[in-house]
Amino acid sequence: MTEIIMYTTExxxxxxxxxxxxxxxxxxxxxxxxxxxxxxxxxxxRLSGRRTVPQIFINGHPIGGYDDLFALSQSGKLDNxxx
Length: 83
Fold this sequence. Notes:
CATH superfamily: Glutaredoxin
CATH class: Alpha Beta
CATH architecture: 3-Layer(aba) Sandwich
Helix content: 40-55%
Order of helices and strands: EHEHEEHH
């Protein structure tokens, strides 16, 4: 089973787009709100090396943000990662 973890904030439009893209693919994900927990923000930055949201991990591998997720989807590679 594919594990998708997405670090988000409430006011992030790219987070909303990423969630919508995953929903259209019928992919389930765990959302971690870093605006509610500063330790989770630190965790995200440590794991991804980035400070922006969303940060998306598939099976423990960082894939980046919404633009990266969209590119994976367009290329068909997202389907391979989540098969």
